[in-house]
Specification:
The protein is mostly helical and about 230 residues long. The chain contains 8 helices and no strands. α1 crosses α4 (about 100-125), α1 runs antiparallel to α7 (about 180-195) and α6 runs antiparallel to α8. The longest helix is centred in the first third of the chain and has 41 residues, at about 5-45.
Length: about 230
C-alpha cells in the first residue's frame, strides 16, 4: 500500500472524466433512448395477433439474448462499414466511426432486453382497460398510446433504470476496441504510466459510487411507484 501512487490519479482524473466519462454517459443515454423506443415497438410486435410479425419480433429478441454482447460488438464494429458500402453502392467500406458503430450495437442489443421489460409492463395492464378503449371508439394504436403505454412505462420505470445501470457497466466493453470510454481511458493511462493497480482501483471506485448511487435512487423510485399504484 505504501507504493500506491495517488499522484497518477490526481494527474489524470480530469482527462478520465472529460474524455472517458463523457463518452460513457453519452453512449449510455443514447443507447437507452434508442433501446427503449425500439424495444417498445418490438414488445408491441410480440403481442400482435399477426403471427408473422410476432415470429419476427420473437426471433430477433431470442437471437440477441442468446449471443454475448462482446460478439455483437465485434460483429457490428467490423460489419457496419461493409453494410454501409453495400447500401450506397460504394466499392470501399464506409467510414462509420467508432462511436456510431458502438451506438448501433448497443441500441440493437439493448432493445431486446427493453422489449421484454415493456412486454411485461403492457401485460400487467388489465385487459378490461383495453376493451374500454375500444368501446370508446379508439383503434389499437390509440388505445396503446393513450391508455396502455403510459401506465406500462410508469410501472416499469424502476426496472428500465435498473437495465440502464447494467447498460452503463456494459459500455466498458468498448475498451477492447481501443475506444476511450471511462474504463478504456483508465486502462490507457495505467499502461502508459505503468500504474495498473492505482488506475484500475480508481475506476472500480468510480463505477461503484455511480452504480450504488443510481441503484439507491431506483430503490426510492420503486417505493414511490408502489405507493402510487
Amino acid at each position: 500500500m505504501g507504493n500506491f501512487d495517488f499522484d497518477v490519479i490526481q494527474r489524470s482524473w480530469m482527462y478520465l472524466f472529460q474524455t472517458g466519462m463523457v463518452f460513457t454517459l453519452k453512449l449510455t443515454f443514447l443507447a437507452m433512448t434508442g433501446g427503449i423506443i425500439i424495444g417498445t415497438l418490438l414488445a408491441m410486435m410480440r403481442l400482435s395477433s399477426n403471427r408473422l410479425i410476432n415470429l419476427f419480433a420473437s426471433g430477433y429478441v431470442n437471437l440477441m439474448r442468446s449471443i454475448p454482447l462482446v460478439l455483437v460488438l465485434f460483429w457490428f464494429y467490423f460489419l457496419v462499414p461493409y453494410i454501409g458500402a453495400w447500401i450506397i453502392g460504394a466499392n470501399e467500406p464506409v467510414a462509420v466511426g467508432a462511436f456510431s458503430s458502438c451506438l448501433i450495437t448497443f441500441v440493437m442489443f439493448e432493445a431486446a432486453y427493453y422489449c421484454e421489460i415493456m412486454r411485461s409492463g403492457i401485460q400487467s395492464i388489465p385487459r378490461g382497460q383495453i376493451w374500454a378503449g375500444y368501446a370508446m371508439g379508439m383503434n389499437y394504436w390509440q388505445t396503446m398510446g393513450n391508455i396502455v403505454l403510459p401506465q406500462a412505462f410508469r410501472n416499469m420505470i424502476p426496472i428500465l433504470f435498473t437495465q440502464t445501470i447494467v447498460l452503463f457497466q456494459d459500455v466498458s466493453l468498448v475498451s477492447i476496441l481501443s475506444i476511450p470510454d471511462f474504463f478504456g481511458s483508465a486502462a490507457k493511462v495505467a499502461q502508459r504510466d505503468g500504474r495498473l493497480v492505482e488506475m484500475y482501483s480508481f475506476a472500480a471506485v468510480v463505477y461503484f459510487v455511480m452504480c450504488f448511487g443510481l441503484s439507491s435512487l431506483v430503490k426510492k423510485l420503486q417505493a414511490k411507484v408502489a405507493i402510487i399504484r
